[in-house]
């Protein structure tokens, strides 16, 4: 199947929500349990939360679309705490589409969306070794660790990874 990378729109919100719920459960149930992950999904990936990201100034929300379904999403935004830095908040690929290059293609596109940025940053849940390995293959390196991944008081530790972006 061929997927095209495009900017997400309001018509994609429900498909994005379903994809995020599915991928979050697949990725995080083994570490945190289905009930805790379901709470994350409800809080972090509600239609309102997704719509807020779609219209965020200095943000970009992409989908990989084959014309009938969305195989993956990527969302990044300028990081206000650090000059010339972009935070990659989400990059998720539907379980049925993993290992087909969709994540790599989404990343290749999203890293070009911020021409003035010099660094891209991502937070990876500490137990999610598969994601950390994916980001390492894309050129990211661990620069720090944190105790509150995803939300304040989450109690979920994470690593912070960064990649230098190419100047255009």
Automatic annotation (TrEMBL):
GO molecular function per UniProt: acyltransferase activity, transferring groups other than amino-acyl groups
Record's protein name: N-acetylglutamate synthase-like GNAT family acetyltransferase
Domain N-acetyltransferase: 3-166
InterPro entries the UniProt entry points to: Acyl_CoA_acyltransferase, Bact_Acetyltransf, GNAT_dom
Domain of life according to the entry: Bacteria
Keywords for this protein: Acyltransferase, Transferase
């Amino acid at each position: 199947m061929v997927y095209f990378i495009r900017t997400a729109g309001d018509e994609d919100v429900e498909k994005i929500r379903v994809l995020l719920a599915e991928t979050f459960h697949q990725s995080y149930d083994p570490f945190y349990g289905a009930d805790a992950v379901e709470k994350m999904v409800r809080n972090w990936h509600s239609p309102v939360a997704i719509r807020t990201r779609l219209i965020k100034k200095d943000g970009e929300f992409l989908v990989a679309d084959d014309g009938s379904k969305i195989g993956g999403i990527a969302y990044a935004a300028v990081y206000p705490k650090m000059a010339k830095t972009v935070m990659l908040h989400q990059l998720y690929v539907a379980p049925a589409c993993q290992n087909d290059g969709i994540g790599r293609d989404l990343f290749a596109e999203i890293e070009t969306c911020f021409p003035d940025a010099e660094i891209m940053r991502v937070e990876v849940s500490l137990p999610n070794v598969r994601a950390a390995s994916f980001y390492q293959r894309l050129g990211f390196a661990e620069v720090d660790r944190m105790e509150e991944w995803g939300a304040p008081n989450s109690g979920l530790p994470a690593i912070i990874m960064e990649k230098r972006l190419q100047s255009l």
